[in-house]
């Protein structure tokens, strides 16, 4: 089977980690199977959808390294939905309803009092043409519901295995609002048919919608895709990510200096059988991730795990990959990068760490170490230097002063770098050179 998947965000704000999970899982599936990846903007909510948000979503995907094979916007495809609407009306599967929201609330409340499920009673199906004409003459404008078969709908979920949704326990869903605008369900099914979507990969919160959607696929004569519902990513407190609640967006993580691959790994491999560890790129993940590895339990995001992973990716980053980014910061040099990368938490940290080589550095010298450092300066070996120079120098100082361990090394580090931490001094010494070391030693 030729695979075609789609990711269908609503451009009503910037996407967060929870949104990134299906975006990337669909990409992995398409890459693993040599398929197509469709980006579908679900922008039928004209009041909340903005082009700025849509552009931001495209920018976030590009930051991850995802290039969709096709981009469509639902706002530009209304004619397709109108045609499907007319077909469903003609076949008797889409029918007009005239109840107000207040009347529906009262019906639901009454059903609960009687111990019945609060589902729509299909009263509108009993209306005659005269009844409908009278209601419309009173100024009532109908919304439109899809008449469900009311049966067990079975499907084999790509992730969860065999599933059954009984539409008999559900209200006939509203597909068209009173103002004529479409809710998510009908345009989504129409697009999946038109675009030849073979696999719908999305969060497990959509499982209950699947029975309804399969009935609409069948009512329109379309091929029913294979569904796969993955576990949802939650924040560190176990709460779901939400635009409405202001969850940290992907653009926020980008602005904070995280690597896109770190975000991608954490967003997708958390809650799977694959370790959250460095991978070469998205294709390396796609080659290894089988959807049978996705857990049926929750997937909780750990900020500490993200920080650790981000640092590990930087520590292993080859110079060829780092070089263009270093150049943008006015830096260059493979030896410099290989020396300093082990100290980075974010790539931007390199600007500060590079000052160990280029200055300015404010040496830190305590009174009790001043004589020791003066001696160290006098005993500093002549050039040329190599990786053995550090041990030669410190061996002489150890034998001369009796100092060893922290008492020997820390004063030298503080004088040369002004820091307690940092790269290995044996390598740093070579890059600094004798003149810079003499300048920094008191």
Automatic annotation (TrEMBL):
It comes from Devosia lucknowensis. Its EC number is 6.1.1.17. Belongs to the class-I aminoacyl-tRNA synthetase family. Glutamate--tRNA ligase type 1 subfamily. InterPro entries: aa-tRNA-synth_I_cd-bd, aa-tRNA-synth_I_codon-bd_sub2, aa-tRNA-synth_I_CS, aa_tRNA-synth_I_cd-bd_sf, Glu-tRNA-ligase_bac/mito, Glu/Gln-tRNA-synth, Glu/Gln-tRNA-synth_Ib_cat-dom, GluQ/Sye. Residues 3-274 form the Glutamyl/glutaminyl-tRNA synthetase class Ib catalytic domain. This is Glutamate--tRNA ligase. It is an enzyme of class 6 (ligase). Catalyzes the attachment of glutamate to tRNA(Glu) in a two-step reaction: glutamate is first activated by ATP to form Glu-AMP and then transferred to the acceptor end of tRNA(Glu). It comes from the Bacteria.
């Amino acid at each position: 089977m030729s695979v075609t998947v789609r990711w269908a965000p609503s451009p009503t704000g910037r996407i967060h980690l929870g949104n990134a999970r299906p975006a990337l899982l669909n990409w992995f599936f398409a890459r693993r199977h040599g398929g197509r990846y469709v980006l579908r903007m679900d922008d039928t909510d004209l009041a909340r959808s903005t082009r700025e948000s849509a552009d931001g979503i495209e920018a976030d995907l590009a930051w991850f390294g995802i290039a969709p094979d096709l981009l469509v916007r639902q706002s530009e495809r209304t004619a397709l939905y109108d045609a499907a609407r007319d077909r469903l009306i003609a076949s008797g599967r889409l029918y007009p309803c005239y109840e107000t929201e207040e009347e529906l609330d009262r019906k639901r409340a009454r059903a609960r009092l009687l111990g019945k499920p609060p589902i729509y009673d299909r009263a509108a199906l009993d209306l005659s043409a005269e009844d409908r004409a009278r209601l419309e003459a009173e100024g009532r404008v109908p919304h439109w519901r899809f008449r469900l078969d009311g049966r067990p709908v079975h499907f084999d979920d790509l992730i969860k295995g065999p599933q059954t949704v009984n539409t008999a326990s559900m209200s006939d869903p509203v597909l068209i609002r009173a103002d004529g605008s479409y809710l998510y369900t009908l345009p989504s099914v129409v697009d999946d048919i038109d675009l030849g979507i073979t696999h719908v990969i999305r969060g497990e919160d959509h499982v209950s919608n699947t029975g309804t959607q399969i009935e609409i696929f069948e009512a329109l004569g379309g091929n029913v895709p294979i569904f796969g519902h993955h576990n949802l990513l939650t924040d560190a407190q176990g709460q779901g990510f939400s635009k409405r609640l202001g969850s940290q967006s992907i653009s926020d993580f980008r602005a904070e200096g995280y690597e896109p691959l770190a975000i991608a790994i954490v967003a997708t491999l958390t809650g799977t059988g694959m370790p959250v560890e460095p991978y070469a790129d998205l294709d390396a993940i796609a080659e290894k991730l089988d959807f049978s590895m996705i857990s049926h339990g929750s997937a909780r995001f750990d900020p500490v795990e993200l920080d650790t992973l981000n640092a590990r990716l930087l520590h292993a980053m080859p110079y060829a990959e780092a070089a263009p980014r270093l150049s943008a910061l006015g830096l260059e040099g493979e030896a410099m990068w290989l020396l300093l990368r082990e100290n980075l938490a974010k790539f931007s940290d390199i600007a500060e760490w590079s000052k160990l080589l280029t200055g300015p550095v404010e040496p830190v010298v305590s009174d009790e170490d001043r004589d020791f450092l003066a001696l160290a300066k006098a005993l500093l070996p002549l050039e040329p230097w190599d990786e053995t120079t550090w041990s030669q120098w410190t061996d002489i100082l150890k034998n001369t002063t009796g100092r060893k361990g922290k008492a020997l090394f820390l004063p030298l580090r503080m004088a040369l770098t002004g820091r307690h931490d940092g790269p290995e001094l044996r390598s740093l010494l070579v890059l600094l050179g004798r003149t810079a070391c003499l300048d920094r030693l008191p």
